[in-house]
Amino acid sequence: MNVIVNRVAEFLKHHPPFSFLEKEDLELVARQVEILYLEKGKILFHQGEPAQPHFFVLKDGSIQLVEKTPKGDEIREICEEGDVFGVLALLGKRPYLLTSEVLEDSLVYAIPVEIFEKILKENAQVALYFAAGFASGQVVIRQDLSQGQKARGLFKNLKGDHSLMIFSDQSEVKVSENVLTCPLSTPVQQAAQLMAQEEVSSIVMVDAQGFPKGILTDKDLRVRVLAKGLDLKTSVQDVMTTPVITRKKSDGFSNLYLTMIRHRLHHLILTEDGTDESPVIGLISDHDIFLSMGNSPAVLIHGLMNTLDLGEMRKIRDRAEQMLLYYLDNEVSMDFVSSVMTEINDVIIQQAIRISRKKLQEQYSEMDKIKFCFLSLGSEGREEQLLRTDLDNAILYEDVEEPFKEKAQEYFLQLGTAITEILLACGFDPCPGKIMASNPEWVQPLSQWKSYFSEWILHPTQEALLKVSIFFDYRSIGPHSSLAEELTEHIYQEIRKKKVFLNFLAQNALSNPTPLGFFKGIVVEKSGEHKDQFDLKARAMMPLTDLARLLVLSHEVVGINNTFRRFEYLGTLEPNYSELFTQAGKAYEILMRMRASEGLRKGNSGRYLNPKSLGKLQRQLLKNTFSPITELQEIVQVRFQLDYFSK
Amino acid sequence: MSTWKFWKKSPKPKDFVAEFLEKNSEKIPAIRTLDQLEFVVLDTETTGFDVEKDHVLSFGALKIKNRKIRVSESLELYPFSDRSVSSTVAIHGILEKENRVTLEDFSEKLLEFIGNGILVGHHVGYDLEMLLRILKPFGLNRFPNPVLDTMTFAMRLDHGPFADLSQIQKESYSLDSVCERFGIEPDDRHTAGGDAFLTAQLLQKLLVLGEKKGIRTFKELI
Asked: ipTM value of the model?
């Protein structure tokens, strides 16, 4: 290997998928690399352009992948050293979905697709690596050793290849053996009727010998028949996808899956000998593959919906944590991760509500008709609860007339207690401040909730402001969310009447302890259980959540609870600060990621971390998240005139 | 250069040299843009710094086409030598390579590789002198190719096209210093291939910089 090839290989070998390559293959790839130097502002490829015969690895610099939408540019990913991107060229052979813009002068290694296709065929590990990336919707293939990842995927244990984790047991992929077929001349309506009868999403057209000639799917019916307004008597052969791609069952999971990914197939037909000149014996759909991935969100949610057994629910929530670990390790976007985890938490709560109501139904049959909603507060309210940290919740029910008042109070307290117990059984921690639906103070009718909030807004004492930080992020988990909307309306009315409340809130938002000391060092706890550790929650995350909440309230925004989405939205409301808000949102995502990783690693809430255990780069990354805090605080200081505000 | 060599009748060029000269007979049009130019970035490691006494231990080169470094078009050669290498081994860390090539093989491979590309190197005049020592016996007395020295190119970009290069501190334009200034990581230093690779990355950056200063065509570059 000559020095130059060797040098390229040395870099590549630290970055998956290249790290899975044998020495000979690695050399083969390294030998074919082309190196591009791109200055800031250049575009490597444009959205919609046909794929180049290369995919790319960022050697140095910074490149962002942007989606051009009618509403403007949306940054989908920022590539850092070692990130692999533009991979659609490799797998999909489709035009680029994103535009790559050079943020900082960058050195890019271009790897010919041709050489890699061969490797994909021969190396299952590499193939699955890409497949896994695609399955989780990544646009960038990341790994553990690159600088950026090291920083972002803090604390990652290098214990082998997690990318394979999502395939819990590959041999368990279900192949449908009763494939629905019809002759080529079948009218589309009849084909659709057959599909409806069999409850399947595809039908295969076969000739007289049973050889597959085409396939028609739900989507084809929608796109090619209904949208075009074709006659229902149109024969299927005029609208089917043909020719079909076929494989044989013994090809093995990874090959089958990869075939589907390469050809963008949702359904793959299996025949006796693998060609289309042989009878159909099976069909594999991406849904089947989906189900075989034990830790996929859809499967977990499906599992939760179908059990009322607490042990089972707890197990599923534990599995969700495994999935979370996989997501964090693989740099899946925080937006996606938090949405998925929130959905899972919400389903657990909804199930808990169902179970509890059922249990109380007999005893309180007349109470079951009273409208109520279960409120998630704090981090779960903000859709940010990744780990099962403290429960903060409450119950809000509609006002009831006198004779039933007491009974209702009793019923909802019992209901709230039952729900809380179930959540504790599912592994959530109780709230130390007892802000839970098992506390009579927080199980109240709408009128009482209104007066709580009015009181806090009118008399923003220190204690009230503390409550505000938890209660203002409420989110209804159902069943009657309209009650929560009514409460929100009330709160904005009250704030409008007493604008000065926002100034108090602002002052409170600025009173959080600072993350950096005088000499720009990360401030650690001076004493106590967490001596010498950094309080990620109080010093970095709370300032951001408080600022986001304040600004969102000042704009009377409703329905956006998530801190980074709040910042994103604020960016649209205040375009002159949009960059700062974007940064703040990104910083918050990084902090969430750090905290969840630390928590999963240590089996705790992840709130405290030891700065000394961080590498230089990780420390810098952490410090970088602080800079939007300071800038935002300055803006708030001025905007809410805190200098003139009595302290 | 001693006179007897100068007057020594050049041997009849070998076929591969003739072929090389033929390839170079066609000149590059002055208006050809940078993207269209083919650069051969090269470096040699030698036993010392005396063109007369020392000789080439290793040669490394790679091509830049359409501004892209082509790793696939890279070459590393270790020519045989009849001299002792002990004096520079310590500095350059080059040990006897198993697969050394004869000087004729070396020359043939070298010329075939560089073709009519623009020869680029850091302080490249020295490398070319050293290479010619090997090539002369086969009938090549000078390189007909256009030559671009990244050292003087960097100086030009810093100080303007009419700067008196003799007044500029050479040390701050060594490959190490320039690479450092341009943020190019200098590993594998002091192997011909490694230095050629560094120089190629440097050239990529210099071309971008040059373009900003109005250097867009072959004529403006050379």
From this structure: 0.80
